[in-house]
Amino acid sequence: MTIPTLDLNDGTAIPQLGFGVFQVPAEDTKATVLQAFEAGYRHIDTAQMYQNEKGVGQAIAESGLARDEIYVTTKLNNGFHKPEDARRSLDESLELLGLDRVDLFLIHWPLPTRYDGDYVSTWQTMLELRDAGKTTSAGVSNFQPDHLDRILKETGQAPVINQIEVHPYFPNDQARQASHRHSALVEAWSPIAQGAVLDDSTLTTIAEEIDRSTAQVALRWHVQRGDIVFPKSVNPKRMQQNFAIFDFELSEDQMTTITGLDRGEDGRRGPNPDEMDVIPD
Ligand code: NDP
Asked: How many of the other CB atoms lie within 10 Å of CB of 152?
C-alpha cells in the first residue's frame, strides 16, 4: 500500500501515516520499530521524553533502509527549553538515533507557566537548529491558538506542524483551525484516544457496515480530514491493521456522524497545554 505524503510549508513533504512509540518500553523499542518497518511504516514519531530514541536508532541501523526512505521526528523535552539546553539535547538525540539530522524537531509542550512564559526564544532556537541542518523541519506540539499567534508575530516564521491531541471525542477544532490559519499541518496524537473510542457504538456500527475494524474507521476519519496520524501498537497484527487505511473511504455522512461524537473539553485525555507544567526528572 502506498502511503500519501503531504506538503509542508517549508517545501518538504511528510508521510501522512506513521508509527508512534510513546509508552513503548526502551528495551522493546528496537524490535517493535523493526516490526513496524516490516509492516511498511516509514515514519517514526519519538521524543526525548519517551526515552526510547536509542531503540529507534538501532532499528533504523538494522533495517537496512536508506536514510531518505525514513521520516524521523523527535521532540524537545520540557526541561530543555533554554537555547543552550535545546542545542545540546538535539545533539544527544542525534547521537542516540545514530543520525546526523532528524526530519522534524518539535517543541513538545509550550509550558506557558514555565521559563517566564518564554517559548519564543525556544522557537527561535528550533529555527536556528533547522538552519544549521540538524533538523530538516521545525515544528511545535500542543500549541494553543495564542501560542501560535505569538511565535509567528515575534519571529515571522510559522511551524510546519502542530502536533496536538485530536480524536473523535476531542476534535480540538480551535487549535486545529489556528494551525491551518498559520499554514501548519496538524498531527493528531492519540488518534484512537489510546483505545477509548474503540468500543464506541457509533464507530462500531460504521465499522460493521464497511467491514473494517473500529480503529481503521477512526484512523480513516483523521486522514480524510487531512491530518497526519501515527497510531502506536506493539502488536504486529494491529500494526498491519492500522496501516491499511488507504484502500477505502468513509462517506460524507459517516464523516459527519463521527465528527458529531465531540465531547468538548470532557473528551480530552491528555493534559491541557495551558496548564501542563511537568518537567520530567
Ligand atoms: P493511540 O491513540 O495510538 O492508541 C494506542 C493504544 O491503542 C495502545 O494501547 C494500543 O495497544 C491500542 N491499539 C492500537 N491499535 C489498535 C487496534 N488496531 N486495535 C485495538 N487497539 C489498538 O495512543 P498514543 O497515545 O500512543 O498516540 C499515538 C502517538 O502519538 C504516540 O505513540 C506518540 O508518538 C504521539 N503522542 C504525542 C503526544 C504529544 O504530546 N505530542 C502525546 C501522546 C501521544 P497495543 O500497543 O497493545 O496494540
From this structure: 17
